[in-house]
Amino acid sequence: NQLIEAGHTVVVIEHNMDVLKCAYWLIDLGPEGGDEGGHLVYEGVPEGIVGVKNSYTAMYLKPKLHLN
After folding, report:
1. Tens of pLDDT, residues 8-66
2. Does an H or E element contain 64, and which?
3. Cα(7)–Cα(14) distance, rounded to whole angstroms?
4. Which terminus of the chain has fewer Cβ atoms in its 10 Å neighbourhood, N or C?
């Protein structure tokens, strides 16, 4: 947070949902790995990913966001 407050950009490659839910912006690549991956599945705020049906990230992140 200190880096962000100082005006820096922080890029993190992460699979931990507790970290992802705090992100300002998500880029979800997939939907699978290897030959079946590497495609842009979603880009935007964490709350916006929950409506993306082919995102594994959405499936695991939704409960952490506590959306109604």
Report:
1. 999 999 999 999 999 999 999 999 999 999 999 999 999 999 999 999 999 999 999 98
2. helix 56-65
3. 21
4. C
